[in-house]
Specification:
The chain is built from 10 helices and 2 strands; from the N terminus they run H-H-H-H-H-H-H-H-H-H-E-E. It has about 325 residues and is mostly helical. The chain has 2 domains: about 220 residues; about 40 residues, no CATH class. Strand 1 and strand 2 form a beta hairpin. The longest helix has about 45 residues. It is elongated, with a radius of gyration of 34 Å. About 20% of the residues are buried.
Length: about 325
């Protein structure tokens, strides 16, 4: 010991000690096998944190969606304010702004595809995990949601196509912006500097540089008509889960069961809910005696605490 400290050298490791250390590490690794069965409390804690994380992700991307819409509305408002501020203001600023709004639409569709990834996971957890906990008698338990969620975590993919995302965002927000820009362009060309008496004068004012006004009018008409036809043609594309689409044919059965259960609850007028509430109050009060019963959740159902006639005295 003293000789080793004086020379500053490490002690040589024998083959036996090396073998023993490797064997111990292997035994430690085998003792902490990750394939062990998870306790219900651990599973519920993990699912709670996972649900909170997915909700936070979906909210973040939803905020980015709103930001892109704000950009489109702001640029459209600034363009119209500049165009109608003076009769000498050029009208071709409005078509340029239409191209810019189209770029914003494509950007928002891309962000919407990412948003749908997290929103679909949240929807699966709500319909497959939380719904059976809230209504255990009405919603049968199914492990298909867990398999679907595990596969999505291992191999993540977009739940909505590009065309469906563009069509959905176009119908929700951007179609009205394009309609406003088209009407504003026609109004600008017609009014300034003085109202046009004939359609030939209108086309003459629509001229942009070397491009004749007739061609500009045709391009604008084809552009807006194509946008309208695209918005109508993509209505049937419904591959995404969405937040409030109960009638959508989702790939998981719990969502369909929740839809039918919701419709049944709405048609029954809430009578079943009232009956369940009355039975819960009766169980809490101990039947017809009117005494309140204190339940020990740590004990098994066979060893629960019963209350005597005096509420302050509890007898096991």
């Amino acid at each position: 010991m003293s000789g080793e400290r004086a020379t500053g050298r490490l002690r040589p490791v024998s083959s036996a000690s090396l073998h023993e250390s490797i064997t111990a590490d292997r035994q430690t690794a085998s003792s902490t096998d990750p394939k062990r069965k998870m306790a219900p409390a651990e599973f519920n804690t993990a699912m709670a944190h996972f649900y909170r994380g997915e909700v936070q992700r979906s909210n973040t991307w939803r905020t980015r969606l709103d930001t892109t819409t704000y950009w489109a509305v702001l640029t459209a408002g600034a363009t119209l304010s500049f165009t109608f501020s003076s009769p000498l203001s050029p009208h071709f600023v409005i078509p340029i702004n239409s191209i810019l709004v189209t770029v914003f639409l494509v950007m928002e569709a891309r962000r919407y595809r990412y948003y749908e990834i997290w929103a679909s996971r949240v929807r699966v957890i709500e319909t497959g995990y939380l719904a059976p906990m809230l209504a255990p008698d009405s919603v049968p338990r199914d492990q298909e949601w867990a398999s679907h969620l595990a596969n999505d975590l291992l191999t993540p993919h977009f739940t909505i196509s590009v065309w469906e995302a563009i069509g959905r965002r176009l119908r929700r927000n951007y179609l009205w912006i394009f309609l406003l820009l088209a009407l504003s362009w026609n109004l600008k060309v017609y009014l300034h500097p003085v109202p046009a008496d004939t359609f030939e004068l209108f086309l003459q004012r629509a001229t942009v540089g070397l491009v004749p006004g007739k061609l500009v009018f045709i391009i604008g008409f084809v552009f807006n008509a194509a946008i309208f036809m695209f918005a109508v043609g993509t209505i049937r594309l419904r591959k995404a889960t969405g937040e409030v689409l109960p009638r959508h044919e989702f790939s998981l059965h719990p969502l369909q069961r929740m839809s039918s259960w919701t419709r049944a609850a709405a048609t029954s007028g809430g009578r079943a809910t009232v009956r369940r509430a009355k039975r819960a109050r009766q169980r809490l009060r101990g039947g017809t005696s009117g005494e309140f019963r204190k339940i020990d959740i740590t004990q098994t159902p066979e060893r629960r605490i019963h209350v005597s006639e005096t509420p302050d005295r509890v007898i096991k």
